[in-house]
Each structure stands twice: as structure tokens, then as C-alpha cells.
Here is the input.
Amino acid sequence: MGTAGGQAALMWALVILLVPLSRVFSSNFPSAAMVNSTIMLGLFLAIVAFGQGLVILSGGIDLSVPAAIALGAFFTGFFANEGFPTPLAVGLGLLISSLVGLINGIIVCSTNFPPFIVTLAVGTIGAALLLGVSQGQPGQNSPPELVALFNGELNVLGAAPSLVMLIAVLMLGYLIQSRTTFGRSVYAIGNSMKAARIAGIRVKFSTFLVYWVAGIAYGLAGVLLLGYGSGSDLNIGNSWLLPSIAVVVVGGSSISGGTGNYSGTVAAALLITLLSIDISAAGFPEGVKQILYGAIVLLALLLSKIGGGRR
Amino acid sequence: MNLQESTGLHRRLAPRAKAPYIAAAVFFVLYGLLIVVSPVAGSAFLINNFVVLMSPLAIAAVGTTLILVLGGFDLSVAGTISLANVVAATAMQRSPENIWLIALGVIAMGALIGMINGLLVSILNLPSLGVTLATNIVLAGIALVIMPAPGGRVPVEFTSVLTGMLGSVPFAAIVLLGLGAFWVALMKTRTGMSIAAIGGDATAAKLSGIPVRRVSTVAYVIAGMLYSVAGLYLCGLTATGSPAAGSSFLLTAFTAAALGLVSFKGGRGSGVAAIFGAGTILVIPKFLFALGIADFWVGACQGLIVLIALTIPSIGRLTRHAARKDAGRNTRGSQLAASTEGLEKQKLHI
Here is the structure.
């Protein structure tokens, strides 16, 4: 815990340091627009990484992220366009996207199958079903209320809604992960499933809940992405899987589970978002961004080893 | 102690000896059903087509199985295939006179990738899932930088050999036969047996004098080379390159291994069975298509097949577990020790 907290503080320091340093990548930086984009894209990444972080904390890994995001975005748009009121459409979208996590949870907690294969398989099924259901109308328009969250029209007490949401997500995520019985049992399970069982933790139920909550988080990110992009397509979730894992590991969580801290994850989400905006502004191709993500994950793994991590 | 261990290992290996036969039976029954539904699938032309089509996956799945036997997970299969595919397509278009030299170079590149994975996992003792996930991302990124969109042209001298016939036998069938023979031979060598021993119990393997680091690294090198060959074969199949060529292999390679009744806990698995597993994965969509089921449900079926395939080994384990429980009621202590060991191992790999 101590090292994870330390890494979180380091991440926040790096975020603050990197804003002025962006000038290296583009002469237009730093700018208000850049900070604004960082907060918006960082918000999506922070929400996705909350789910991924819980799964990794429990000792698993979740590759069903893209499918759950796409389901959340598609069905929210679908129901809104069918004339449902927006809150109901969002609710239904979340419900359907959470099915991915629900099924992941049921399978992982009741069997000893490797989580990465289970989530990959369930995600593939979800994506294929979405492709089948959406025949002929792959894109969905966003309801105007969701668009208004991100186009600068709305402000909450003078602040952009995305900033307010980011702070809310940070606080809520931190509380759930570090201050609830559920969150504490996930730490225990990630450290030692056997010890957690002996300590009287309902290991199966908590494991199930981890994947379900994660699925809801991905769906929520999908709903917000629908508003951000003013619509959705079937590939809306594809670009979020790798960053979500990178962010969790960079934020100080062990990829083997048991340690980590959501504040570090959010800081890493902002850091990686900022870096990727910088890289795009500097004109590097998409592949370079991927290489960077991979290198960062490797580096974080190495650092956790050198930094006296237990594993 | 040593004797006990070796007999223990033997007992654990023994039930799996049936795996290739089961996997082959499943495949041949399905292919037989396909011929019943659509008789043209039995023609020599389509059989050759099918063997060519399943070759890249079969080759990759043998690599995946090898690392699973070692007790690790190698997710770099997708990135390595993409990179090999892209590098081969680009280089072969540029200098079509050196295609076989280029193929060799690409295989060497795979060996290098495997070596990096192996060293990171075995020397630095990092979790294989994390390491290979990261290298997979990096490799896919490099592939994307080399070739941002599908392109390149592979000379017909290369494709015609890989997809053609050698006499009256499909060249791909010879490759797969060779691959199966390679697996059987490898598992009879000291290295092969050490790989299985490490996967069965890394601590015991170390204590009995197996050079764990060297053997692990060699396994990753072999796996990397196999992925590269799979990427090359994909070039031969499509006559072009794509930076996303390997991405679908992540799921299918592990599915093929699962259909080959591999143990995801390490120590047991058969590359020969995985080859038939690859055939099973590819025959199912054809079967569904012949039945008139729409294309986009195939993905859903593939996912379902993985989940079903995963249950097969555990059913076997369940029955054996029940038998052992009956046999050794008074060795509760050793059972508990064994189960803790299993848990610790599980944590190590996930």
C-alpha cells in the first residue's frame, strides 16, 4: 500500500509537470483546449480503468472492455432514437452492457478458467451479437443531453461538466476501492485467495461483483463516449482496452493483483492521455502511440520489480 | 524424493496421452458432418484449401501450447504474427529475388522476440501475462508503423509453394505433419521434458537440477519462431500484408490449445492435439455456413466454443479428483499442501 500511495503521488506530480512541458511537442501548447481535452479523454479512461483496476486488483484481467463499451454506447443511442427519455435510455444501455461483466463474473467465480480467456471469449460473443443485432444501422446518434455534457454549452458552477465528473469519479472510485467492505475484500482476494477465504470473505460473490461492476463502468464510459462523439459506431470501444491496462499498471497497481490505489490510476489516466495528445500533436502515427503504451507497461512492470515489490 | 516426483509427473502426464486422439476424433467427426451437409467439401481441391487455411493457426497454436505447458501465458502471439506478416510482405515486395532469405530473417526475428519475452519472464521473474501483453502491444505498434494500412505484395513464387501441392500431397499437410513430428520429438528431448516439469511444478523442477531459466527462455524462443512461421504462412495465404493480421489469433490460438485439451495450469498439453484443435475451430464456421447461418454469428460461436472447450479439461480433472479423494482419505495434510501450492502457482501466472 505504501509504495502504491507513493507512486500515486509521483503520478500526480508528473501530470502537473507535463502540462507546461507539452510545449516541447507543439508550439500551441499548453493551451486551455489541450487541458480541456485531457480532462475529457482522461475522464473516459479513468472510468474504464476503474473497472479494469478492480479486476486486476482481484488477480484477473479483463479483455472484454471494447465489447462492453460498444454495447453501452450503441444501446443508449438506440433506445434514445426509439423515443425513450434519455435517462431511461442510459439506464437500459448500462443494463445491457453490464451483461458482459455479469457473464464474465459468473464464469470466473464459479470455475477456475483463466480470466483473460473468459473475458476475451465473452467479449467476442458480445461484439458478434452486437454486429448481428445492429445489421443495417451500425451507427447511432447521441441524444442531445449527452452531447451537451461535452460541447461546452453546459457548466456546473462555472466549471466544465467533465471536470466535475472527473472529480466525482475520482472520489467515488477511491471510496469504493479503498473504503468499502467490497473494495477491501478485493484487495484481500488479490493478495491471497486462500487467506481471504479463511478470513471469512465471500470470495466467489466478491469476485463475481468485481466483474459485474467493471462491466457497468465500461458501459458508463460507452454512454459518455456516445455523447462526446455525438454518436457511436461498432468500433467505439476498441481503442480503450490497451490504455486501460497501461493506466492501471502505471498508476502503481501490481499486474498480479493485491496492491494499488485508484488515485494513482486516475493520475496515470491523465498522464497517458496528455502524452497521447502530445504525440498526436507532434504528428507521430498511431503505431508510435501503441509502442509507447507497451513500453510504459513494461517499464512499470520493471519498476515495480526494482521498487521492492513483493512479486 | 526424486523417484516419487518423477512417478508423480508420470501419473500427471499419463491421462493426457489420449488428448491427440480425442482432439483428432472431434475434428474428423466435424469434418465428416461438413461433407454430409455439403459434399463438395470432400473434394481434393477443397481439402487442400482447408489444410492451407488452418496452417497459420495450427502453427501458432503449437507455440501457444508450448508456453502453456511451461506454465505461462504468451499473448505476444498476435503481435508477432502481425509483425512477421508485415515485415515479410514489405521486404518481399521490395526484393522479390530474396524471398527465402527474407523468410529465414523473419523466423530469426521471431526467435529474437521470443528471447526477449523469455529473458524478461525468467531472469527478471516478471509475470508472463504482463510481459507478453506489453510486448504484444509494442509489436502490434511496430507493425502499424511499418505498414499503417494493409498492403504489400507477396511474390507468387512464395505463395504458390505454400498453398500448392508437392506431388499429389498438399504442401501444407506436409508442414503440419512435420510440425506434429517436431512436437513429439521435442517432448522426448531433455528440453521438452524439462518444459513439462517446470510447468508441472517450477520449484520441484529447480530443486531437481533443471536449468529453469535456460529452458524457459528456449521455450519462448521456439514459440516466437513458430508465431513468425505462422505470420509467413499467412502471407502465403493472402499474398499481402496487414498490420492487423495477427489480432484474431489471440483468441483462436488459445481456443485451439483448449480444444487440444491443454491444461491452463501448466505441465500438460499436446501440440499435436492443438493442431487438430485449430482444424476444429476452422471447420465449425464452414459447417455453420453450410447450414445457412449468417456470417456474423460465427464470432459468437467462436466465443462459445472457447468456453465449452475450457470445460473439457476440468470435467476430466473433476472425475480424477473424486477418485483421488476416495483413495487417500487419510492424507488430508498432503492434499492441503498440494492445494496451497496450486493456489500460489495460479497467482504467479495470472
Chain A has a mean pLDDT of 86. The first strand of chain A starts at residue 140 and ends at 141. Chain A has one domain: 36-305.
